[in-house]
Design a protein that fits this description.
Blueprint lengths: L6 H24 L6 H14 L3 E2 L11 E5 L2 E3 L13 E10 L2 E10 L5 H18 L8 H14 L3 E2 L5 E3 L6 E5 L16 E4 L2 E3 L5 E3 L6 E3 L5 E3 L2 E6 L2 E4 L9
Antiparallel strand pairs: 1-4, 2-4, 3-12, 4-5, 6-10, 7-8, 7-9, 9-14, 10-13, 11-12, 14-15
Helix pairs in contact: 1-2, 3-4
The protein binds 2-amino-4-trifluoromethylsulfanyl-butyric acid and cobalt (II) ion.
Length: about 250
């Protein structure tokens, strides 16, 4: 069952998602050579709690941190560590919060210092793919239209879409129905209706699409060691089209 939110609930989701966006912008501005992902995690938790919210991931199925920080060939669910970021790295910052009973969830991938042009292209194409997916959000459309648009854009640029992880409905729970694959045929799955709230999150690899999970039980990495990027927005379906609730106040990257 897909839970549709009332206008009052959407307002509350705008608050939790707005907080996620604000904290991600703050973290992205901190990213630099020498900064560790554990430093970013500490800043994230402090800002989330200062706003009267709770980290959504910490304790979720035993996940140990506020932030998922996935570096280079790490695809998603990287656990913050003491290792300093270095120029040429890329890092995906993925964070969720719970505020006033509703969850927010978003992710952005940023370059550390100077990165190669093809790496900049990977980041740009992944963010564009998210935008193409979001542009399919309309009352009466179908869930699979989103993933189809994402896959088409990614593959047109010679990159690949991860199959093992998907986007999701979100609301009073972090993960609600429906699942939102980042690939597939259009015109399949449930129809989009007013009040649905969706976390759309393409994961894009520079090399082959397959991934594996490390022995820590969380960190997903590309099997071929190629770089991977991840962008996520939480979006409400409205009569007027998509309402992106995690727009960052300041541009990143
Ligand atoms: N954005 C991811 C998701 O929605 C991150 C979840 S991390 C976890 O699934 F720790 F909460 F699992
Ligand atoms: Co998510």
């Amino acid at each position: 069952m897909i839970v549709c939110k009332s206008p009052a609930e959407i307002e509350r989701m705008r608050a939790s998602n707005g907080l996620v966006a604000q904290v991600l912008a703050e973290l992205a501005a901190m990213v630099a050579p020498g900064v560790s992902t554990l430093d970013l995690d500490a800043a994230a938790e402090k800002s989330v709690r200062a706003a009267g919210a709770e980290p959504a991931f910490k304790g979720y199925r035993g996940y140990p941190a506020t932030l998922c920080a996935s570096v280079n060939d790490q695809v998603v669910h990287g656990i913050p560590s003491k290792r300093p970021l270095a120029s040429g790295d890329i890092v995906s910052l993925d964070m969720g919060v719970k505020l006033n009973g509703f969850y927010g969830d978003s992710a952005v991938t940023v370059a550390v210092g100077q990165v190669a042009d093809e790496v900049k292209t990977l980041l740009r194409v992944t963010e564009e793919a998210l935008e193409k997916g979001i542009s399919q959000v309309r009352v009466g459309g179908r869930i699979s239209d989103i993933g189809h648009a994402i896959q088409k854009h990614v593959e047109a640029h010679g990159f690949t879409v991860v199959r093992e992880f998907v986007g999701h409905g979100i609301g009073a729970a972090l993960h609600e129905e429906p699942q939102i694959a980042n690939y597939g045929e259009p015109g399949r799955g449930p129809r989009l209706a007013e009040g649905m709230t969706l976390a759309i999150e393409p994961m894009v690899n520079m090399g082959k699409p397959s991934v594996k999970v490390l022995a820590d039980g969380w960190t997903a990495v590309t099997r071929d060691g190629s770089l991977s990027a991840h962008f996520e927005h939480t979006v409400a379906v409205t009569k007027n089209g998509p309402l992106v609730m995690t727009l960052r106040p300041t541009p990143v990257g």
